[in-house]
Design brief:
The protein is of the alpha+beta class. It has 6 helices and 22 strands. It folds into 2 domains: 227 residues, Thrombin, subunit H (Beta Barrel); 96 residues, PDZ domain (Pdz3 Domain, Roll). Helix content is 19%, strand content 37%. It is globular, with a radius of gyration of 26 Å.
Amino acid sequence: MRPLISCTNGRNQALVHCLPHQVMINLIHADSSLLDAYSLTVSQVYKRIAPAVVHIRNEGNKAKAGSDKNASMGSGFLISSDGFIITNHHVAENANRLVVTLDEGTELNAELRGSDPSTDIAVLKIDGGRFEALSFANSDQLNPGQIAIAIGNPYGLQQTVTAGVVSAVGRSLRAGNGRLIDDVIQTDAALNPGNSGGPLLNSDGQVIGVNTAIITSAQGICFAVSSNLASYVAGQLVMNGKVRRALIGIAGQTVSLTPRMREYNRLKNKTGVYVFEVMKVNALNHRKIRTGDIIVQFNGKEVGSIDGLFKYLTEETIGLPAHIGLLREGKLVEEVIIPEPSAN
């Protein structure tokens, strides 16, 4: 390796170190090659994927007064050759008519096949031929720093591509109905109003997430529902028109547990769910859970919040006995309840 060359600034002032001219040229070429490879990756993904990304116009959307003029526009992408499309719930909600514009300009009416406000995912259906479709990657294998490519229609500007990285995985995001969306991807790929519902892609052109939200007061903090969650919800919507979840018929709030409660009952929880109302879902649950109880366990797993309890109330628990741990008058008791299907 050649040594650094000492140079002066021409006035015999402090010496600075300069790389030999040829080394500088080689480094510049190396950087250019890396940039060319990155650009080529993004460009190739765009060319291959763009035909499967659509613009969605929600006609008759009851947008709130003072909302952005693009509130009734969004993006989506085809997930099957027969015309099923994933987008966001907030893009498709309250629609009198949904119009999908394909990459080459064709406009088609779309049918809303199902929508899930708890994950902000909706599925539309269009007819009119065979379509290009995207495939899902396994979002459990994502690592921060991976390339993330977004394609969508910000402010109605169709087929706009932006690129960045996966900034973080495993984030949580509050849905419009107040429920927490788990397994959310954070990215710095630029998203704007109108990108909602479009795909977030890896360098192989596979969907790693569904773009859903931005923090307007920040720069480079955007979110996407992970591909694993989105594909599961989309499958439920295609088959059933809704996502089935369980409920146990209580209204509650997160409360802190006193050190005495935790020590006496040998609990690791610092918080639990205080039950301030019991609704008659079924006779068994109504008798087993009482107002004033604090829920701290579900089937042996810790429950520290309402959101934590929701995580366990999945379709798989409907109709099956569930062991629920309750603090009642300061003592831990266990009751067996039967979760019921939710109405929505």
